[in-house]
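Structure ticket #2291
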Amino acid sequence: MVPFVVAKKLDQGVNDPIVARLTLQNFEILQKCAIPKTTAESIQSLYLSELTPKLLRCSQIAETLRTETEKLAASYKPPGRGATSVTLPQVMQLEEECRNYLYEAKNFLRDLLKVFNLLFGTSFEEGGEWTLAKKPRPSVIGYAEANFQKQPDHIRYLQQVRRNLRQDAQRRRASRRA
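Resolution: structure written out below.
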């Protein structure tokens, strides 16, 4: 008899909001969707093995930087009168962690396209295609606006985040040049 193997996929449990939203809630929604079972399973696999870990890493980086910044701000003591030097607090590895954050966020957006492609039969490939068209096809937002116009609730979120996605893409490109 082959032993039953249980592999732990995530460090966080279902009480973590990211895990709950990207796994449990999406899996429940997928059960109610009129899509082939193999497509639903592929989407579940993407969420569990690719999307959730990347977003958790972004959250971990942001929390670490926030905690370190607050700790340093609380421990800062202004120089005394007549002081000739000042030691300013700084978050160690800040630039590297910001680069890591942007890299994980870019990969999350790119991998999220795989879900979109499975659901809508599209072939988007790069994270920047959420907002930037890659000829001959439109951007993801352009595709959604053209195809979901009869259901404006489907595109409202995409329209609201268009500016943020562009800014994130610009930051990522700028960090690569630095």
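Closing remark: Residues 132 and 139 are 5 Å apart (CA to CA).
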